Design the sequence.
C-alpha cells in the first residue's frame, strides 16, 4: 500500500472536497482519498504506485490544481 | 410575476450556487432563481407570492442562511 500526499488549491467547501474525492477516487489503483479542506491536503492511498500526473489530471478534472511540491 | 431578492451568506463556489438554485428552484411557485456569488444575492422569480420562510427553509436545506433584511 502506498500513501502520497498532495496539496490542492482552490477548494472552498464540502462540495469541492466531494468533487476531488470523486475524481481522484476514480483513478486506477487508488483505494482511498482523504481531504483536509483548511490545508488543502489530499492524501491518496493506492495499491502499488499511481503516477502523480494521473492524480493531478483528476484534480484538474474536478476543477482544481495540485500545487507543485 | 413576482421578483424578490434575498441575501444568502456562506456560499463560496459554483457548487454552492448550484445547491441553492436547486433547493430554492424546487419551492412551490418559484419559476426562476438567479445567484450572484460575490454578493450572495439570490433573486427569486415566482408566479404569485412565495412565503419568505419557504425560501429561507430551502436555503437552509442547501446548507446556507438568508441574512435578515
Sequence:
Amino acid at each position: 500500500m502506498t500513501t502520497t500526499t498532495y496539496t490542492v488549491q482552490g477548494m472552498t467547501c464540502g462540495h469541492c472536497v466531494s468533487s476531488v474525492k470523486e475524481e481522484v477516487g476514480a483513478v486506477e489503483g487508488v483505494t482511498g482519498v482523504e481531504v483536509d479542506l483548511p490545508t488543502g491536503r489530499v492524501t491518496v492511498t493506492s495499491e502499488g504506485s499511481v503516477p502523480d500526473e494521473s492524480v493531478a489530471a483528476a484534480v484538474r478534472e474536478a476543477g482544481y490544481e495540485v500545487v507543485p511540491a
In short: Residues 5 and 43 of chain A are 4 Å apart (CA to CA). The beta strands of chain A are 2-9, 30-36, 41-46, 65-67. The first strand of chain A starts at residue 2 and ends at 9. DSSP finds two helices and four strands in chain A.
